[in-house]
Hints:
The chain is of the alpha/beta class. It has helices at 2-5, 7-20, 33-40, 44-56, 72-75, 86-92, 95-101, 104-110, 115-119, 123-129, 131-148, 152-155, 173-181, 193-196, 200-205, 241-254, 276-289, 296-305, and strands spanning 31-32, 60-62, 67-70, 163-167, 186-191, 212-216, 229-233, 260-265, 308-314, 320-326, 330-331, 337-338. It folds into two domains: 2-77, Arc Repressor Mutant, subunit A (Orthogonal Bundle), CATH 1.10.10.10; 143-338, Vaccinia Virus protein VP39 (Rossmann fold), CATH 3.40.50.150. Helix content is 45%, strand content 16%. Mean pLDDT is 92; it is low at 336-343.
Amino acid sequence: MFELITGSWLSAAIGAIAELGVADVMSETPRPARDLAKEAGVDADCLHRLLATGTDIGLFRVHTPGYFSLTPLGRTLRSDSGTSMRGFARWIGSPAERGSTAYLAEAVRSGNAVFSMANGKPAWDYLHENPDVQALFNAGMTDISAQITVAVATTYDFSAHSTLVDVGGGQGRLLAAILAARPRLDAILYDKPEVVAHAAPVLEQAGVADRCRVVGGDFLTGVPRGGDAYLLSSVIHNWDDPDATRILSHCRDAAPAHGRVLMAEAILPPDGQHALSKRLLDLSMLANCSGRQRTETEFAALCEQAGLTLLRTHHTDMCSVVEAGALATQPRSDGSRSTSQAA
């Protein structure tokens, strides 16, 4: 029970390692803590204590006393790792995120997000007004998206589509992977202007910039037309049912009658089935933004509210793809009606 209760201390230690860039000055070659501290610009005694803690959780190895090296697990906290989680660890360890989860009991009591209790404003307003924190958040979401939703690039068959619109696609890391695997697919990357402003290097490095148009905007008010598939990866879980329905309705309106709306999300299993990571993510969504993880049944109900029908779910371990199509004779916001539903 002591270890369970102090789990936040463990997360704080990992967050500090990530924030200080400790893994970036380490390798598999043992080095003395004092040299690592000098290179990282931190107190030598305190870094030794942090390294010793990291050794106990498998991030580092200790050799002769005071000499430490990086393990494969610890390498995921390096900025240059192909499986880097440093950005995500920095975000989870940040005062903004940790402050809101400290009020989780109040979130459960009231049923509302508590981010503003810790930070003075709702999450999206606070991020917009604090560019440094938003950059930290974006880096964290880019990391976690790359690791959790990477299976989306291979799980769903995009070959039936000509243009994919990645709604809320951040800086385009997932979209770049999808396009790199499918040379005949074109795409539109859509997110807040200040987010997609940093997408060009990601798309260029993947060699897909010529097939991807970058558009800035707000998916709460609309999404670009021109796609026959609309992807929302780790987007819908950030919103309560009314706002999630609004976002899905915009995608339904923008898509042709035969189009698809795809939601890449961590789907909750029925009660009694172990899914600790997904359930902790669910509580984080509650505390930060009144969002939620959903079961497949709840996704089906959400789709129906948005004038969509859940066609099938493509399951993976952590992140699955919910595929939806427009309901027959569904009224659109422009007054026209969808007259068919693809099976």
